[in-house]
Amino acid sequence: MKNDKTLETVANEYVEISAQIKALTDKKNQCRAVLESAGCDKISTPTHTLTLTSVESKRLDMKAVRAKLTRQFIQAHTLITDSLRITVKEKK
Hints:
Helix content: 40-55%
């Protein structure tokens, strides 16, 4: 097992990467809003072409489905998987 200093270094790197991803996601969403409001369907740069297409997405309304199914049916068809969740909280 790695020593505590190494784990602390890796944990700090993880926190920093998480913050960078959030900042980049926010910036990407801002860019998307500008592109969407421009009303263009195609934008070209020297290296890329962006095509903006309106698409319809269909999703199953699980809340409505669960309301019509019995608890026993839901339990019998629920798949359980193991995963690791890492939550980053800033110390106060």
